[in-house]
């Protein structure tokens, strides 16, 4: 059994798609990044890599590599999960939190759980996604960016 945690932050900018948890969210701002900047899938990827002592996504997919310009973070997550399954492990369960003042994530949470569980080939009951504001405090509270946290438990396959 292995445990891992991940944390990621991306800045908000105008005229960019907002993609979180592999789901496109209707909002006037999106997240800035080298990839599609899916802050939740990045935190989950880092948690999985942490659980198998494989560093972080920056090590596997450097943001200096043009190959990852505009990359689909869903594909990066699947590559990361292959490292996990190649070691004879699989996801036991995943819990994560999105920290965003706006927009409201609640209408998208079920779609995110469906998408993430599909990418990791587990049941929706193994994937929990939560959202919170930071009560208008800090960079998330000022709507300068969005953060995500993830914790995974891996079990023997
Ligand atoms: N971006 C967000 C933030 C929060 N929620 C939901 O609202 C509830 C209350 O949030 P507080 O930060 O005021 O505690 C929270 O539990 C979430 O269900 C959301 O959907 N999107
Ligand atoms: C995902 C990668 C891919 O180049 O780029 P970004 O979208 O900038 O995301 P970040 O979480 O800052 O770092 C990881 C990068 O490797």
UniProtKB/TrEMBL annotation:
Keyword Metal-binding: yes
Protein keywords: Isoprene biosynthesis, Lyase, Metal-binding
Site (Transition state stabilizer): 34, 133
Binding site residues for 4-CDP-2-C-methyl-D-erythritol 2-phosphate: 8-10, 34-35, 56-58, 61-65, 100-106, 132-135, 139, 142
Cofactor names: a divalent metal cation
Listed pathway(s): Isoprenoid biosynthesis; isopentenyl diphosphate biosynthesis via DXP pathway; isopentenyl diphosphate from 1-deoxy-D-xylulose 5-phosphate: step 4/6
Subunit-structure text: Homotrimer.
Record function comment: Involved in the biosynthesis of isopentenyl diphosphate (IPP) and dimethylallyl diphosphate (DMAPP), two major building blocks of isoprenoid compounds. Catalyzes the conversion of 4-diphosphocytidyl-2-C-methyl-D-erythritol 2-phosphate (CDP-ME2P) to 2-C-methyl-D-erythritol 2,4-cyclodiphosphate (ME-CPP) with a corresponding release of cytidine 5-monophosphate (CMP).
Name by which UniProt lists this protein: 2-C-methyl-D-erythritol 2,4-cyclodiphosphate synthase
Provenance organism: Geomicrobium sediminis
Organism lineage: Bacteria, Bacillati, Bacillota, Bacilli, Bacillales
